[in-house]
Amino acid sequence: MAEKLAPEKRHSFVHNGQKVFEWDQTLEEVNVYINLPPNVHPKQFYCKIQSKHVEVGIKGNPPYLNHDLASPVKTDSSFWTLEDDIMHITLQKRDKGQAWASPILGQGQLDSYSTDLEQKRLMLQRFQEENPGFDFSQAQFSGNCPDPRTFMGGIRTD
Predict the structure, then answer these.
(1) Does 19 fall in a domain?
(2) How many domains does the chain have?
(3) pTM of the model
(4) Which of 8, 66, 89, 155 could form a disulfide with 80 if both were Cys (CB 3.0 to 4.6 A apart)?
(5) pLDDT, tens digit, for every residue of 79-127?
(6) Where does residue 84 fall: left (phi above 0), alpha (psi -120 to 50 degrees), or beta otherwise?
(7) pLDDT digit string (tens) for 133-144?
């Protein structure tokens, strides 16, 4: 049932008509997807993930991305992989349940409607996680959706 509440599509950050990256999120992580340029050996790519910063590039060149993150991450469980000409960066949220409007601070922010949809989806994921015998995939909110991170005392970590 939880897979019914997984992200349905990726958000795109486009700058000057070029897609910079795509991303999605769950309660616990933010996933960033970057299409890799052709004819560059995989060992030349690098990604440095810090608590509040990410740097991505090709060794010996200026970084492709070198920005602060929208929120802090757990560096010990954040990582990156290369597969099928895509760099996949998994950022483990320090604050589980926090709805991110973008992975990069001040870059490609979701509009308020999309942010609200993300918050609602994450709230339903939280309900599903806390009540595994129920199916929340068709549930809807009337009015404002509460913050999934803080609603009713916050997310349990036990």
Answers:
(1) yes
(2) 1
(3) 0.86
(4) 89
(5) 999 998 999 999 999 999 899 999 999 888 888 888 888 888 888 888 8
(6) left
(7) 878 877 787 777
